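Journal club prep — side note

Before the paper discussion, L.F. wants everyone to see what a predicted structure for a comparable chain looks like in token form. Sequence:
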Amino acid sequence: MNYKAIENKVKELVIDVGAWIRNERLNFNYDKIEIKGLNDLVSYVDKTSEEKLVNGLKSIIPNSGFIVEEGTETVTADYNWIVDPLDGTTNFIHGINCYAISVALEHKGEILVGVVYEITYNECFCASVGNGAFLNENKINVSKVNKLSNALIATGFPLNNFTHLNSYFKTLEHLIKNTHGVRRIGAAAADLCYLACGRVDGFFEYNLKPWDVAAGALIVIEAGGVVSDFKLKNNWLFGKEIIASNKEISSTFAPLISNNFNEGS
């Protein structure tokens, strides 16, 4: 299977669907949202975007399965598309920049292709296994920052799972005091891509879904970064937690997150 060719086809699809989302935002009304759960919002834009993506992806790999946020398709297969049709829905609804489409191809737990299209800035990040990572056709790499004190960190705030707030705030306090700062962008897929191109140097978050991280994590890895779960193992895709960084700060950044979240466990 030619993963680079698949990457290019996915990129064309997500840019096309992203243009539709951008146009819908021009006349979007707050009254059009639905509440899925505490702080968990959705609109017809998420649902229609997913339908468009699923239909397009079916033609790229026939008989493929789907792991998708809005439940358009529920059948899995040997090769599965992992899709977030609008990562950063809250940003989108409130008219705040940074929301993205995220699409990844998974086979037996390995991510083979990842594409993230940040719609507001027209930035398409993509990667396929063994082929490097790119932003709008230009090769990208993680930063070379080698001290946590010189690093800029990205994170996501817990939306509705507050079981680890003490660990989270302890970690946040340390990072605020001992780095260049912490940024909360509001879309995990974009956080990972910003890490991949060197805008931030580390990222961590818990209570995530596969569609939040699948594509972005591959892009980080292909850009030279490292990814793990909070136990410093490899269960970041389905384990609901992720640590990612460049290699230079990984030996201090990853253990900091791991120790704070696993004390007493």
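L.F.'s comment for the group: The first helix runs from residue 3 to 25. Keep this in mind when we get to the figures.
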